[in-house]
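If you are new to this repository, start here. Below is one unmodified record pulled from the training split, so you can see the exact layout before writing a loader.
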Amino acid sequence: MRTIETLKSTHNLPDAELLELLETADEALIRQLKAAALEVKLAVKGEEVLRRGLIEWSNVCRNDCLYCGIRRSRQGVARYTLSREQILSCCERIHAAGIGTFVLQGGENPAGALELVPIVRTMRERWPSTAITLSLGELPFETYALLKEAGANRFLLRHETANPEHYRQLHPAPMRLESRLECLHELRRLGFEVGMGMMVGSPGQSRQHLLEDIRLMQSFGPEMIGIGPFIPQADTPFEHHPAGSAETTLRLLAIMRLILPQANIPSTTALAVLTGSKQAGLEAGANVVMPVFTPETEKIKYDLYKGKYHV
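And here is the target side for that same chain:
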């Protein structure tokens, strides 16, 4: 079909045609979209599925995002922060498993992020050839610089939505989309490989918002793209809102593979919660999985959304 061939060859489509791909009920068109994304992934990235070892460093967070299971005001969350020894033990296990990337992820905690600087330096000294990815939220420029100097290579900072009004519906003041985008540009100026991404089906989201997300990621050109469905969590303001669509998530994943063929795109756990495995994402253009190495005693506390550890 001409629409898919145009997207595959030019890495772009007019807005109306992108919206058609998000909204169509034409099963043949959607099969072709996913098949084209898989073909491009195999041609550009090869058959290997990249593994990243995920360490959920802390569920302490200063923010109160309305959808998140570790939001500051959520009651009953057992807060934890891994020690230096626990983090390095996780790294040992990841390295022993033959995985070439450590991913340190945690709630937004600027003071805690500063404490990670010497730990990141030790990680770099002990495993000089292993990539170090951080996902720690919005931090002062100086902290990003210290983490980069200590040896971190990559930083994941999902924008969640490209529409400022919709962002305000999901995040209370003083959080602003403008601040998040400024952080993404700062990370790039510092020389990080930068990842961004968004939720699909979050409360208040429209198809036009999804189009804005596509255009933002296209214009920024991130090295990594994370796309996952919204999944409600108990005891949050959005606990009764329906989950996002796995099908729409897969279509977006495929579209972004065709628009930015060089990007690394994970098949996310959130998507697997709805589909039952990570295979559907891999067949729609994803090329990364992120097995969790957080200690068993703590990982259940990193409770972002319902069903997170049931796949």
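Two things worth knowing about this chain: The first helix runs from residue 2 to 10. Residues 1 and 138 are 42 Å apart (CA to CA).
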